[in-house]
Amino acid sequence: MRHNLNSRPLRAGILWLAVLLGLLAGAPAAHAQLLRQKAYGTATGQETMGAMASLRAGGYLLGGSQYFGATPNRPGELYLLRLNAVGDTLWTRHYGLRGARGFYVQHALEDAAGRVLLVGSSFTSSGTTQDDAFLALFSPQGDTLWTRRAQSPFQDYYSRPQLTPAGDFVLAANLEGAPQLVRISPSGQRLQQVIVAYSPSDLGQLGLLLPANNGGYWVGAYNSTPPYTGNFVRFDAAGVRGIELPILPNGPAFGDFIYDGNEYIVATGEGVARFDANLNVVWNRTLTARGYLFGPDFIRATPDGNFVVGGGINTTSGGQDLGFAKISPAGLPLRDTVLIRPGNETLCGLAVAPGSGNYVFAGSGSQGPIGGEDIFWGELRRSAVTAARPGLAPANALTAYPNPVGADGVVQLAAGQALRGTLTLRDALGRELARWPGSGAPTQRLALPPSLPAGLYLLTLAPADGGPRQALRLLRP
């Protein structure tokens, strides 16, 4: 497999500094807990982040993609950003894969030798084929050690990876239409491949991979449409299938999780939950941040024995904002934070900084200060209570419901003023997929293209009078 290893520096700057100063003006000093924030990108490209790894040597590695919409026929590239502990750029790397037009990065995992495995999907054409799954292992200096790409007529993808005591990578995978348990050596050799599908209730969809207290793993396989029937299958360390449990009601509730060898603390689509070693629910909590309901995407342990969770909140700010909450071991909320800024922001990484215990976060913003969509990185003081007042959000915010989009592909738009202008739907690579005239009313019903595959999309409203563009992200599960 051939790689394009030419490196181009990215520009870094302060992220939405003017907006931040406006939010903090007149606020008590105790509320100014956003310690650092920076942006990374280029004036001609669109940069999208996928995952962040907190490195043992200090600092962070961001993995994502870059798309050059202004350059005809130039494919998107996979790229890495190496940051120090305060967000300064140490180096960047760009890579291409033959035949790939763009990338999604979903996960990043560092091993004991400081190598980082990126896990994601690649696109081969403009929506005419299914996505391909890829793995790429990089040295601590960002050099490519190996890549693996799974190509088939099906939607191929990998789960969040785990490390074995021997230093191998274990992943659940959906390859060639079948859920599998895969173990790969640090040299890229496939050491184990076990098909998970075992009964008619498993319809070829991959759930997730969880470590089990027998040294093995739980793998979930399920139907991706209601009623989400399926099962968790338990494997031992040798890959031998063991007991089976039904998938939890309303689908696999597990998202990001912390496992202590006996219990799981899980960030779910509904909030936070605790499960015992046999996946029985100990407690389940819904969460709000500054009065908004949100389902966190990430969870991390804090030095004081509590947990911090982070995710996106659809509020009145004109898109998706960032929400953080500190919770106790019993799931009780202790503090919460909402960062309200223009456009849409997607949280793609959360870490607890060594020593200070501050919260470090990173992701993508649709209205970056450098050019189009940029990457952001920030640090919150761990005693954070509030970062912005919801009343400062613009009154003409564009919102969509439901989001994630339902099976019928119909969404209802709403705004604080009449929708006049042009609505445009684009994919993650910036390609236009559909266009509608604004309804001229504060609400509008949209039917998305029926062939739209699962993924993340950007819907923008360009006002007819040339006013500020509004944008929001739509998730098609």
From TrEMBL:
InterPro entries: Quino_amine_DH_bsu. Keywords: Signal. The keyword Signal applies. This is T9SS type A sorting domain-containing protein. It comes from Hymenobacter ruricola. Residues 1-32 form the signal peptide. It comes from the Bacteria.
